[in-house]
Amino acid sequence: MRVPVSWLRDYVDLPADLDASDLADRLTALGLKLEALDRVGSDVSGPIVVGAVVDFEEETHSNGKTVRWCQVDVGEDAARGVVCGARNFERKDLVVVALPGAVLSGGLEISARKTYGHVSDGMICSARELGLGDDHTAILVLGADEGAPGDAATEVLHLRDHVIELEVNPDRAYALSIRGVAREAATAYGLELRDPALTFPAAKGGPGYPVRVEDPGACDVFVALEVSGFDPTSATPRWLSRRVQLAGMRPISLAVDVTNYVMLELGTPIHGYDRGSLRGDIVVRRAQAGERLTTLDGVDRELIPEDLLIADDRGPIGLAGVMGGAATELRKSTSDIVVESAHFEPVVVARGARRHRLPSEASRRFERGVDATIAQTAARRVADLLVQLGGGSVAETATVVGTPLPREAITIDAQLSSRVAGFVIADAAAAHALSLVGCDVTSADGLLTCLPPPWRHDIGDPYDLVEEVVRIVGYDKVPSVLPAAPAGRGLTRGQRLRRRAGLALAAAGYVETPCPPFVGERDWAQLGLAADDARRRAVRVLNPLSEELPLLRTTLLPGLLRALARNVSRAQADVALFEIGSVFLPGPGQPHSAPSLGVDRAPTEAEIKQLEAALPDQPLHLGVALCGERVPGSWWGPAQTGCWADAVEAARTAARALGVEVRVVAAEQLPWHPGRCAEVLVGETTLGHAGELHPRVCTVLGLPARTAVAELDLSALIGHALGLVRAPRLSTYPVGKEDVALVVAADVPAAEVEAALRAGAGELLESVRLFDVYVGEQAGPGRKSLAYGLRFRAPDRTLTEAEISGARDRAVAEATARVGAVLRS
User: Fold this and answer.
1) Is the distance from CB of 17 to CB of 185 less than 8 angstroms?
2) Distances in whole angstroms, Cα of residue 283 to Cα of each of 138, 220, 291, 293
């Protein structure tokens, strides 16, 4: 909302030396957010006066351009000679002349200069050069009664003003009017408000243009007042068009400008109908199937039965509260006008505007709530201005259908504001603050009974009143108190372990990427999941942010892979991401949606149980995804490309951070590659899978080949964690090193061989590391050779050669017994 300060002065006696920035600060302190403070006309300075064109000669020059050599009376002894390229004025017309020394909009400096064979002693100005609009094709011609030669044009044109632009929140709908902002300004300075809704007369109810309201629930008040004999050629006076322009609207014609002016002034949208174009009664009704309406913007719109219309005998003539129809618009020949001032239900207007993608100044106000009690005042205000500025007469009575719905009083403890705000607010101060808001307040026995004003639809419960009291008394008076942290609290065990797993992955080079929890059927198809895959059974969101993503995720992979693909598409070839987040797993027989409860009462225990029963299981999962180089190549050696083994190691890294030893076995699970997928287990419990992404999935998602991913049930992993991770025991005695190469079947996992070696070697084994894998003739068909480095050490002595070799032999024997390993010579 753009608010000219000069307009506010009509209703509040603001200080003569008012600093507009101070006013903006005070309005901000009252909760009206300042968007901008525009010092209109501040870039125009110097001598700019009204001039009368005494005479002119048209001259055509060698370049083909025709100019006028004008003699202009600017209130001096002699006329000034001015060269002008425009020709839209005549002799004796009043124009605006910038004399030498003036600076126009955009920094254009005016001086006497020779042009087209003459010395132009000034400049005749267009609207754009004065900052009054965008028109630069013609000069600005003033009305005969708008001044005399030599008058200061800045005063005649209302050139300079301060305009405060406010960002109005939906609960501050009253601030979409000069009336509402004037109330706040009066409160800010402790001044009296001359409420225009009480100053102007209201239209009297009685016989008028016939109106029928068939849907009183959507239109509780409709006022129709006739104006006859209006002169459609009447020009909009400068002061009115300038105010409409400063408020952010484009002046069009006197009749339209007046309706816009009153809407800006009072906050109530007004619409005018060409009386001669109406056919029969005005009817407020819902649309019928197949009806169409051409709105004022020239668009032919298909209507549906939910649309609220203004209609006459021929059909729809307007979309109620949004925009009028072209069939009855005010034309250049309109002399008889029916002024409509109505109140429409906010939700109906909001839905209609959004359905037809037709936001308007009217819908913006109706959908936030307007004052229904001033409909008759607004209609009479428009009619009086039309007659005052364009002639004609106003009908003695207006058709008035319906009455505004009454507001209910709210009773609160007078000290409730003090308890909520944290500082003492006297009962009288609270009552005074509410009266400034517009409430009708009575005080008795420590209670305040308040009847909210009709323009404040956001006030509906005691705490709305508390907010108003604190706002008026001053948010700056609310003390800043740092609450003391309660003793004996901190992160839970689960939170600590969750962070530990995340820190371990971050230390390993992965970047945490929180992803939105929403997925769609397309994600399942991209992952290649079968129709009966359990992961496809997902919770559907009733009001999703995106129609393409209406489901809650059952796996972290869609979001992680989208993030990975986005990085790859932006030339980030080497990426390693991880996420820790909840998945949503509906149980068997669980309802797909929770019951919808009202807000008029607290839920019962049975309803709470229903809500809880509808909640899906929400375990924490951990997911990783990587592609490209894990170790860059340089002078120290070739690069190491990330592969399935890195995904498996990421799962081991997270588990080790929680003190859990996991084992991996070969598995097949989409969307992993069937030959490069590992199942991660603790005991016999499956935590998840890790490995290389299926090539088809990589192609569909635009990912590099051999992209690797892993996903674990972190909640289950935390359940197996000991909580405390013991530091390793360090021995000062020398280490014994032994290398063994074991030949096993090609399908035997290296992890099973390692587990056998650990079991056989016993307590003396400090570590085991796989350092070579060989597949070839020497290993034999269907066989592979795995080379392990074994390190033996005792905490209390130096091991003998016999102890080391004995432990090695026991390890090999156990591997032979478990997996059929053969020691390679």
Assistant:
1) no
2) 44, 13, 15, 15
Reported residue count of the chain is: 825
* Interatomic CA distance for residues 3 and 451, integer angstroms: 28
Q: Which amino acid is at 777?
A: E
CA distance 376 to 512: 61
Among 347, 358, 372, CA closest to 324? 358
Q: Could you tell me whether strands 708-713 and 308-312 are parallel, antiparallel, or unpaired per DSSP bridges? A: unpaired
DSSP 796: S
116-131 in b/e form (b: 16+ CB < 10 A) is eebebbbbbbbbbbbb
Q: What is the pLDDT of residue 589?
A: 66
Do residues 465 and 456 touch, judged by C-beta distance below 8 A? no
Token pair listed for 490: 């901190």
User: Which residue reads 């906010």 in tokens?
Assistant: 346
Amino acid at 774: Y
User: What residue ranges of the chain have pLDDT lower than 70?
Assistant: 589-594, 722-726, 728
Q: In this structure, what token pair is assigned to residue 551? A: 């489901």
Specify burial of residue 726 (Cβ count, 10 A radius: 0-12, 13-18, 19+).
Answer: exposed
- Residue 271: strand pairing partners: 340
- Nearest 5 degrees, angle CA 237-CA 242-CA 246? 160
CB 422 within 8 A of CB 477: no
The alpha carbon of 531 is separated from its chain's Cα centroid by a whole number of angstroms, namely 36
Helix (H, G, I), strand (E, B) or coil at 147: coil
pLDDT in tens, 778-816: 888 989 999 999 999 998 899 999 999 999 999 999 999
Q: What's residue 62's pLDDT?
A: 78
pLDDT of residue 673: 94
Residue 736, token pair as written in the block: 């014994």
Burial 516-527 (b: 16+ CB within 10 A, else e): ebbbbeebbebb
pLDDT of residue 138: 84
Beta bridge partners of 577: 511, 625
